[in-house]
Amino acid sequence: MKFKQFLLSKGVIGAFIVVLFYGLLMVGIYFSGYKAVPDKIDRLPVAIVNQDSNSQALQNQLKDNLPFKHVKTNLSLNDAKKQLNDRKIYLIINIPNKFSDNLANLGHDEQAQLKFYINYANPMTAVSAMETVTNRIGNQVQKNILLQQGKAILSASAAKQLEQTTTASIKANPEAKAAILEKADATKKTVANDINNTYDQVKNSYTYSIVKMHRVPKGMNHSMAPFFLTLSFYIGSMIAAMLIVTSYKTFAQTIGKWRAYLSTQIAIVLIALIAPLFIVGLSRYINHFDTATYWGLWWNHTLELFTALNFNLIFSLMLGQLGIMINMPFMLTQVVSGAGLIPQTILPEFFKGLSYISPCYYAIKGNFNILYGGPNVTTIWLQLGLLGCAAIICQLVVIALQKNHSLAIKRS
């Protein structure tokens, strides 16, 4: 009877509702919100400002190759900069005055320079997309220019040599001038064709491919899923632990601290088993993964929630409501040490060390492997379970050191 009352107490029911509320809220908001990336990145407006009347062909080529639906070509550079600052456009590609003349000037009196303007006071996704496009377009233009210049140099050299040979032949045999010029013209066409064919082969002699292992579906809601899923459970567990402790302290007065603690652990196990059914279910509805993945994620987050609840319970048992003063900073550090946004290898040493006792770190690794492929999921689950058991041992020490009278609470 007492155990049933414990499970139906305000603290346990409140803990279950908090885990569900935060989990469903974060999954629903983040997964649906981040579906816009990268699918809608091409809707960001950009501008091409051409100040060189001889570079119309380059402008058209750039416009055709840009992966954006809205490319403005009718702005002055000052107007474009103003719109960039106002976030009405997100990238300016500027073809400066005399760009084509400077390209043709191989003496490099003035270097031809294509300019890209990016406003970095924008969300990371927009800036990253513009940097990627800038690098790709810049390299592509450079490659085309090098090919054209090399072709022009070779053509000029061949033409000069042919001209010298023709002049010498006419000088030696003036009567055959017409025949020599006709032959020179035919030779010129042959040489031009040979050069064009050679550079076509050069142009097509290289390409590259990307071999994608553990392919992640398009959309930031997929690439960020391992991180957001994990964080949604951990935030809920932090507040839920505070509520469970209130039930523990209340019942410890009547049934004893050890029986109350046993009831607390059973409640934690039940919450850890049931809550992920709904939260992972919502993520499946939004991200469309299969049944096997669903059950793998359910077990991964059952272990995470069990471990996280027990981790947060340590300081709630020690300090009561003030336990949040330790649990909150620990949760915030796990945003970094969980390695969902930054690889663990390049983390600062403090966060790298913290990752080994971070429930989020193991849960995020498990999510990546279950969702997109990777080894040793069972080992990750074992590590999560051992972390949870270590937290329980710490709790047992805390409870053993507490005196029964210290568990009393004031009744209103």
Q: Could you describe the 3D structure shown?
A:
This protein is mainly alpha-helical and 412 residues long. The chain has 2 domains: 2-35 and 220-407; 41-203, 3-Layer(aba) Sandwich (abc type-2 transporter like fold). 69% of the residues lie in helices and 3% in strands. The protein is built from 15 helices and 4 strands. It has helices at residues 2-7, 10-33, 56-65, 77-85, 99-104, 124-172, 177-203, 220-223, 225-255, 257-287, 291-319, 324-337, 349-355, 359-372, 377-401, and strands spanning 46-50, 71-72, 92-95, 115-117. Strands 2-1-3-4 form a 4-stranded mixed β-sheet, sandwiched between helices. Helix 3 (56-65) links the parallel strand 1 and strand 2 (71-72). Helix 9 crosses helix 11 (291-319) and helix 11 runs parallel beside helix 15. The longest helix is centred in the middle third of the chain and has 49 residues, at 124-172. It is elongated. The two termini are 24 Å apart. The model is unreliable at 405-412 (pLDDT under 50).
Number of strands: 4
Instruction: Indicate the structural class.
Output: mainly alpha
- Output mean pLDDT: 82
Q: What is the radius of gyration computed over CA atoms, rounded to a whole number of angstroms?
A: 34 Å
In total, the number of domains comes to: 2
Q: State the oligomer.
A: single chain
User: N- to C-terminal separation?
Assistant: 24 Å
Low-confidence stretches: 405-412
Number of helices: 15
What is the overall silhouette?
elongated
Helix content: 55-70%
- For the biggest β-sheet, the strand order reads 2-1-3-4
Taken as a percent bin, the fraction of beta residues is under 5%
Order of helices and strands: HHEHEHEHEHHHHHHHHHH
Largest sheet: 4 strands, mixed
Subcellular location: Membrane
InterPro entries: ABC2_TM, T7SS_ABC-Transporter
Keywords: Membrane, Transmembrane, Transmembrane helix
Pfam family, one: ABC2_membrane_3
